[in-house]
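ok so i was messing around last nite and threw this chain in just to see what happens. nothing serious, just curious
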Amino acid sequence: MFNQKVVRVSSGCALVFAALLAGTAPAEAEDPTFDLPRMSTGADGFACAGDVSGQIITHPNHQGWVDIRLRGSLKAFGIPAPWCQLAATVEWRNLDTGKSGSVQIPMYAEGNSVYFWAIPLFSDRVGGGYAISGSGEVEFTLNTNYPHTPSATNVTVS
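result:
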């Protein structure tokens, strides 16, 4: 009798567990991400220069909307320097509609890090922004307020 109760309880638990697994939704696929090529640039501050790169993230569920994330490493004489900063601008132009705009993203050393990397957080506050470009083929160009190597990419925004 005891064994029958254990078997029934075990069977009941297994059925509940199987039902829970069957009802679990599959994980959503990541949003498509496209790279803005790395560029070299001068920067604000004594002897400052460095590299900046970025990502364009499209959102199929939010048509015409893209997130822009930038990452940079700013140095003086090749050594990470907390006083280096940079105003980066991502200009965009929808090649299908002609709509255009820009997003300005300041880049500076975060806090008092021992490494003094100028890597912004991926948020609207420091190292990111967004654009409502509309659907179509959109050209993104990364610029700074100093001499730099060109960085551009085309993305199909849904």
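not much to say yet. The chain has one helix and nine strands.
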